[in-house]
């Protein structure tokens, strides 16, 4: 019996044995299920679509030489390098500092996974982190979010294992080094090398490569520019990476001792705001023109394009220097006033329509209004279009018109000349030379629909129609229509081309990252103004710069033509100068300069410089710029006048009286030395010979009702 009981006890497991038995079976089932689940998860998981921003490349904009960089467009500042182009010292340094088993691990780190699990248990899901290999970091950057959770970590591990099997180590390392963030707005090793050391990655020495790749661990906290603590922390990380290089056999102890104890010198690299300063206006224009030609935002900012602009680096520097120097001189060094006085300059290559230089303001970030593309009344610089209208209607430069004050039909306010000057019967040539308003108004009234004809001529020259353009002869003759400096330069370029118009543009060529040409500007001159008419307009405007209101421009030393312009608003005995212009051109280059004041460009310029005229600061700015832009170009003269025969009856008799004393032309240039830009604060003689506040109107019939008649010169 006892034996039987003994046998029974042996055949029946104890409670603890049963517990361990079933626990083992349960654990085996769990492990099998987990393994099956992991296997299914691994088999079904696929690399998702990459985060789009990390596949973008910076597009660079160059001056017209294709070599000098103007700026860039980017979603992320990145220049992708092929694996073979990434320096070996960079590859070794990143592995030593971030993942020394990179070349042998399966893409995941078991110790790292255990650390992540420990963080999950001790700190909760929000703190699940750590232990990432380079492959895992690449997965997180390229495919996942920056969320800290177990779910994201688990997905990261699965994808890293998948990537480790499907991609070569070289592909993974190359992808990582081209996408990881280094700080200072730089993504990838090439952009980072330029941001920290102002050189291409291929030129980094070993110490620089180690320091740069060490920053990846904490870009915000390890940038030495952020202070001594950041530099000390970087040194610690830098030394850790160097020790890793020794451990990996990539560096000897002797080599280590040469670079171990201090960081390489970080040069002071200027922080560059992409649109800061005057260049912001140029980049904004380039971007707008690219969009107008079919390029998308994604292509422009992330397509890695090489964009060659029309801007000439030397000419652009001269434009900025001339505009800023003359602005400050005009207000006698008063920087507060200078901030509210706006010079604008636009310069065009006559043959191609390429914008060579443009000054729209001192800083696009602080004030994005581009004064070079802002329409303002042009004063007497509109007279050449009125002249085209007259010549098209059978007039010649020898026909005479009324140079005295007179009241046009339907008006109650007389038209007058500067200072009340009277010229009597005056030829159209002399009226152009001395900017005689009364004669020009008389001329447009003498032809059918003269105001509309002048606007048509302006449009034919390349000026876009504006809302304020009214088919009114008086307004057109006195320069009430508003035009931008850019389009005024383009309009006068049409005259320089003997009537052939070429559209202004700022983009020459666009290439993709492989060098394929995607876009090239097409130059298609069009004869929009009759050649004989344009030749006579040129002839008349050469007299302005040799004998008339723009005579000081002749100091350029090239055959040139041009026109001054000053726009006033009169209110009783008071007058307000709202805009001053000089537009001048040689055979090769046309340049328009405008000065306005105040936030809206409508303040009184006389508050900034007494006697503000087109032949003053605008002409001085034009001359300072053109001496640089025109330098070295061949001397090219103008065609002689056409000797056209008039087909209309002149309005004034040929017995031309002598000008009154107050209107006697002063054809001498100012006493300022022609080799230097005029300093307005010391050059009271820069008033034009015939600067004419001459009253204009909003319409012929309603002239007497206008509370503030307009005037121009």
Radius of gyration: 37 Å
- N-to-C CA distance: 137 Å
What is the CATH level 1 assignment of the largest domain? Alpha Beta
Low-confidence stretches: 1-12, 25-45, 125-130, 655-709
- How many beta strands in the DSSP annotation? 19
Number of domains: 2
CATH topology of the largest domain: Beta-lactamase
- Which strands sit side by side, in order, in the main sheet? 7-6-18-17-16-19
Q: Say which CATH homologous superfamily of the largest domain is assigned.
A: DD-peptidase/beta-lactamase superfamily
Q: How many individual helices? A: 24
Helix content: 25-40%
Structure description:
This protein is of the alpha+beta class and 713 residues long. The chain contains 24 helices and 19 strands. Strand 13 and strand 14 form a beta hairpin. The longest helix is centred in the N-terminal third of the chain and has 30 residues, at 15-44. The model is unreliable at 1-12, 25-45, 125-130 and 655-709 (pLDDT under 50).
């Amino acid at each position: 019996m006892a034996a039987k009981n003994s046998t029974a006890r042996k055949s029946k497991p104890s409670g603890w044995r049963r517990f361990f038995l079933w626990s083992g079976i349960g654990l085996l089932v769990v492990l099998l299920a987990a393994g099956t689940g992991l296997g299914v998860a691994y088999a079904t998981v696929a690399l998702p679509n990459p985060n789009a921003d990390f596949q973008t490349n910076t597009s660079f904009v160059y001056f017209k030489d294709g070599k000098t960089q103007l700026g860039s467009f980017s979603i992320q500042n990145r220049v992708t390098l092929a694996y073979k182009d990434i320096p070996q010292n960079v590859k070794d340094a990143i592995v030593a500092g971030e993942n020394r088993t990179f070349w042998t691990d399966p893409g995941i780190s078991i110790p790292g996974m255990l650390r992540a699990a420990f963080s999950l248990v001790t700190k909760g899901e929000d703190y699940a982190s750590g232990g990432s290999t380079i492959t895992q970091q690449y997965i997180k950057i390229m495919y996942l979010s920056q969320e800290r959770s177990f779910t994201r970590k688990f997905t990261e591990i699965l994808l890293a294992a998948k990537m480790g099997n499907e991609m070569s180590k070289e592909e993974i390392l190359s992808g990582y080094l081209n996408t990881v963030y280094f700080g200072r707005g730089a993504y990838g090793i090439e952009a980072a090398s330029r941001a920290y050391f102002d050189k291409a990655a291929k030129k980094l020495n070993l110490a620089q490569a180690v320091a740069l790749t060490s920053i990846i661990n904490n870009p915000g906290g390890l940038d030495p520019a952020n202070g001594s603590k950041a530099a000390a922390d970087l040194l610690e990380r830098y030394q850790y990476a160097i020790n890793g290089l020794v451990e990996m056999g990539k560096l000897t102890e002797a080599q280590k001792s040469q670079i171990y104890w201090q960081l390489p010198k970080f040069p002071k690299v200027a922080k560059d705001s992409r649109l800061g300063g005057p260049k912001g206006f140029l980049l904004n224009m380039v971007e707008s023109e690219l969009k107008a030609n079919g390029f998308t935002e994604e292509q422009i900012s992330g397509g890695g394009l090489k964009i060659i602009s029309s801007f000439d680096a030397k000419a652009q520097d001269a434009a900025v220097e001339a505009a800023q120097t003359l602005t400050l001189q005009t207000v006698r060094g008063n920087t507060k006033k200078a901030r509210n006085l706006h010079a604008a300059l636009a310069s065009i290559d006559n043959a191609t329509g390429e914008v060579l230089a443009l000054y729209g303001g001192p800083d696009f970030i602080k004030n994005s209004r581009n004064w070079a593309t802002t329409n303002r009344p042009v004063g007497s610089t509109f007279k050449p279009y009125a002249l085209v209208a007259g010549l098209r209607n059978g007039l010649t430069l020898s026909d005479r018109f009324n140079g005295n004050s007179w009241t046009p039909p339907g008006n109650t306010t007389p038209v007058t000349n500067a200072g009340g000057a009277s010229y009597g019967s005056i030829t159209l040539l002399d009226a152009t030379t001395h900017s005689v308003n009364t004669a020009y108004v008389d001329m447009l009234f003498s032809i059918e629909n003269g105001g509309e004809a002048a606007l048509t001529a302006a449009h034919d020259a390349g000026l876009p129609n504006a809302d304020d353009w009214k088919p009114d002869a008086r307004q057109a003759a006195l320069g009430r229509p508003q035009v931008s400096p850019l389009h005024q330069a383009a309009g006068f370029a049409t005259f320089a081309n003997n009537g052939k118009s070429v559209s202004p543009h700022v983009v020459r060529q666009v290439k993709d990252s492989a060098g394929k040409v995607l876009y090239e500007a097409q130059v298609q001159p069009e004869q929009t103004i009759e050649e004989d008419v344009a030749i006579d307009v040129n002839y008349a405007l050469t007299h302005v710069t040799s004998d008339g209101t723009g005579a000081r421009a002749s100091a350029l030393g090239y055959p040139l033509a041009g026109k001054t312009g000053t726009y006033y608003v009169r209110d009783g005995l008071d007058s307000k100068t709202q805009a001053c212009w000089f537009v001048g051109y040689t055979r090769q280059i046309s340049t328009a300069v405008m000065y306005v004041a105040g936030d809206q460009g409508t303040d009184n310029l006389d508050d900034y410089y007494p006697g503000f005229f087109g032949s003053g600061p605008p002409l001085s700015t034009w001359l300072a710029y053109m001496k640089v832009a025109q330098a070295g170009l061949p001397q090219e003269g103008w065609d002689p006048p056409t000797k056209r025969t008039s087909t209309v009856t002149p309005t004034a008799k040929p017995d031309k009286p002598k000008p009154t004393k107050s209107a006697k032309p002063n054809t001498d240039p100012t006493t300022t030395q022609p080799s230097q830009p005029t300093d307005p604060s010391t050059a009271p003689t820069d008033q034009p010979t015939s600067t004419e506040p001459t009253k204009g109107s909003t319409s012929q019939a309603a002239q007497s009702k206008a509370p503030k008649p307009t005037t121009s010169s």
